[in-house]
Amino acid sequence: MRICCVLFFPLFLFLLAVILITEDEANDWLIEQSDWLVEQVHTYTSEAKNHEHESEHDEHGDETEPKNHEHADESEEHESHAKNHEHEAEQDHEDHEDHDEHEDEHNDHKDGDDHEEHEDHDESKLTLLSDAQMQALGVKVSEANSAQLDRYITLTGEIALNEDNVVHLVPRVEGVVLKVNKKLGDRVKKGDVMAILDSREIADAKAEYLASKEQLALAQDNYDRKSQLLKKRLISELQVFEIKQALLDIQIKNQSAARKLHALGFSEADVKNLPLQPPSRLTQYQMFASIDGVVVEKHIVLGEILSPEVSEFAIVEGTILSNESSAYVIADLSSVWVNFDVYPKDLLYLKKNKVVTISSNDGIAKTQGKMAYISPMIDKGTRTALIRCILPNPKQQWRAGLFVTGKVLIESIRAKVVVPKTAVQSDNTLFIITEDSYKLQAVKLGRSDESHVEILAGLEKGQAYVSKGAFILRAEMQKSIFAKSGHSH
Hints:
- By secondary structure, the chain is α+β, with helices and mostly antiparallel strands.
- It has eight helices and 21 strands.
């Protein structure tokens, strides 16, 4: 109640002052009353607290002291517990830091072990094999050395008959084939009788020669007798001269008939022996082989008519040959031609008599020939030039129509470090030899030929490397990596 009076009395006075006094007086009065009011409130508050404290002390004097002591003990216990908790927290933090540090050390140690194990099992290394293992796997180790690299250009060609050693045997007279002595593929010698024809033309030529020969003999005998009579002065010189003139005419006729037989293929011995032949042979014409060789073509059969007036392409009741067609083709196969089609860009490296190494895919051993002809013209259709080599063929294994490959050496260079191509992997690596392992080494490749390649970097001269069996080692390495990977999991 007292508090309400204290609080509401100044408010009442304030309202009264607002109503009764002027503004300036009211302001001064309000300031004084405010200061007084604050002082009263402060005084009243202090007295109220002191009074409550004294009352509580009197009523609970005995209980207050134990409770305060208990409260102090609880405070001390709480404080001690807080300190212990703080100490435990600090200890836990230290232990946690020690554990983290130990864990880090353990992880570092583990990482180090893993790293060491990774180093011990490097995927680019393989443990060295024993000599027996190397021999079983076909692995060979060599030292890197310098070598010569030969650069070639490759040409494609075809075997053809050496046309300088080919004979087309043709009939020289018209006639009917009576006998065929040689077949396709037969080997023949020069002078062998290939076929026999029955020819009226040859009969007329022989008859003319034989008649002129008989006439010459009679004329010679008549001249000899007249010459004896002239010596005895029994006839005049004019008569002897006329007889001599007739003898000369017959001699000319005889010689002309003999030349005609020579033109038909008769030799001097054949003409000389002609009078000794039986009459049945006077109509026969013999075709002789003019070279040693093999019959590679045959266009004649028994009963055919050979006529110079028809072409070989005219067929009337069978094949009819003429002297414009070949009854036989005989080839000397001791040498053959190799015709290459060469592009203009490669012609710069080629010249006459340059050696060409020739090979085929038919199991025939490589051989060499020389360029005998280089065409001065480019074919309009193929845009290539013809290069021809003459190839010795003693075993006659190079057959016409066979496709071949020719290689021509165009450059020889000396390289510092050269290895076989089989030693280099597809990723441009090779195996070098270390103290205890085979190690994959990346290399930089340079120029190459058919079988070797130059190493520009990654391998030094004299350094040991795997020259044979590198792919087998690579497979063994992959197997080892796979096995270790499976074991680790």
